[in-house]
Amino acid sequence: MLSPTRRYLLLVVGTVITLHFIVSFANEDYNHMVSLRRLKEHVLAAPTPGVPPYKVPVPAEYRIAQNYTAPERKASAAIVMLARNSDIDGVVSSMKQVEDRFNKRFRYPYVFLNEELFDDNFKNRVSELTDAGVQFGLIPAEHWNQPAEIDERKASEAREQMVKNRVIYGGSIPYRNMCRYNSGFFYRHELLKPFQYYWRVEPSVTFFCDLEYDPFLYMQDNDKMYGFTVALPEYIATVPTLWDEVRAFMGNESNKGLVVEGNAFDFLTDNGGKNYNLCHFWSNFEIANLDLWRGPAYSAFFEHLDRAGGFYYERWGDAPVHSIGAALFARKEQIHFFDDIGYRHEPYQHCPQGAAHAKGKCWCDPKQNFDNDYYSCKRKFDRIFQ
């Protein structure tokens, strides 16, 4: 039989335990303070002899969980980057901004393409930045390299002349390979075949604003084919005969039905098509429907340009080629200016204005907006809707 003292002690202990459980259920702060996990963290966080305190991890209680759940309704889309292993610092800079501003909420997959195999350092650094899927693709040599049909003597002479004239990338074959690949091959890559839309992102660009809606779904639901943020003229020295080939393509009877009614042709010319005004959408940023490039119209157009050899005999860029293709093979209403996406690719930037700037929490200076520059083609784009 228990003595009175022991009965008293058991009563006290039982009362304390009972009160502990009652207060634990009734008061979250108390429960957090006395939880076993907290006690464990404090034990783990206790100083260890010979170990600097900063090497002890910060307890989880100080962290705010980022429990983003990707929306159930999403487009068939991917974020696409063409990059080399040596571009890794610029790649992670761009990718981190895309994640923070947009993709940590929507979790669209990434597709990285390279004419060489990506190394482990590249793969590890980009994979750490996202909870979305990441794929790494090797570009087929026949899609990347200068075609055998190109007269190398003629192409070499053209490069030498461009170097003398100080044309940017005038002497570079790899740059020409890239422009041709982006113009007519990237959308054929096996890794992109499952997707309907893509967002092209380049290394070392800047995204100024939060994007809290899904631009892919916007494109899908509103029948948009091509989206841009900056429009400007091309250097005439790089495309001296491009418009001649465009006119030849359009003048060919077999191509008559390919150009759509209600297109954006007037964005490209100020005199009814006699001359090219050099305006183009800056394709280092583009969100587009891959069917625009996969379709028979653009396919015929690219094949015509590729046969002409201007990617190597001159220095045709994918920006004017894509822009002309979009202007001819999409209705003007299907080309969308993403006014609310703040973006910079050196040396130009688009900075949203007014309410869009505030809503996106943009950090660019609204006064520094290329749309207002005399060199911008944005006004010519607006003009086609008047």
TrEMBL record:
<dbReference type="InterPro" id="IPR002685">
    <property type="entry name" value="Glyco_trans_15"/>
</dbReference>
<dbReference type="GO" id="GO:0006487">
    <property type="term" value="P:protein N-linked glycosylation"/>
</dbReference>
<dbReference type="GO" id="GO:0005794">
    <property type="term" value="C:Golgi apparatus"/>
</dbReference>
<dbReference type="InterPro" id="IPR029044">
    <property type="entry name" value="Nucleotide-diphossugar_trans"/>
</dbReference>
<dbReference type="GO" id="GO:0000026">
    <property type="term" value="F:alpha-1,2-mannosyltransferase activity"/>
</dbReference>
<comment type="similarity">
    <text>Belongs to the glycosyltransferase 15 family.</text>
</comment>
<feature type="active site" description="Nucleophile">
    <location>
        <position position="286"/>
    </location>
</feature>
<dbReference type="Pfam" id="PF01793">
    <property type="entry name" value="Glyco_transf_15"/>
</dbReference>
<dbReference type="GO" id="GO:0016020">
    <property type="term" value="C:membrane"/>
</dbReference>
<keyword id="KW-0808">Transferase</keyword>
<protein>
    <submittedName>
        <fullName>Glycosyltransferase family 15 protein</fullName>
    </submittedName>
</protein>
<dbReference type="GO" id="GO:0000032">
    <property type="term" value="P:cell wall mannoprotein biosynthetic process"/>
</dbReference>
